[in-house]
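Table 4 source record.
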Amino acid sequence: EPRLLTRLGVAYVDRARETADPSFYAKAAGVLERAGRLAPGDAGTMIARGLLDLGRHDFRSALGWGTRAVAANPDLPDAYGVVFDAQVELGRYQAAVLTAQAMVDRKPTLGSLARVSYARELLGDPAGAVAAMTQAAAAGSGSATDRAYVQTLIGNLHLGAGRLAPAEAAYRRALDGVRGDGLAEVGLARVAAARGDLAGAARLLEPAAARLPLPATVAL
């Protein structure tokens, strides 16, 4: 069943992102290749293959899969999401802004509004970025992990503007949704460091780095 294989492939991609274990990318590639052979014109499988290539930093290939998915089904917001993410990574910011608008025009969901927020940030509109990200959080769609991630992004926007109290509040909302969210824990540590509490920041970072020793977390 191609759809089941595609769902399994997406789950492997998610697991690779959560654990930083690249073996899950190899597993995802195997099942998505099978799904593609069984249903070569399926837009959902194309989106999944784009997500896989984004995870593996093959952004040109991801853009190709996203573009093909849009052509196969122009009404799927997730296809535009793959295109947007690839365009941003390739530095094609003006094109990414248009893609984000096309995505939100299809459906103003958590994912599409979050990308509108990022597009506004790229264009130097931090207030507009916070507004769109807050709308994304209010959209209420997506998994608990997705909602926690959006709260973390809201925290990052506030922190970047030096607003420590709202940044801390957003990171804590993220942790209320998903306990052990490493990105939110790192955010709280950055808030503590900005307040001069380096020992407190280190205490927050140690368990996050132990679970997922990403270089940026360990360096911080």
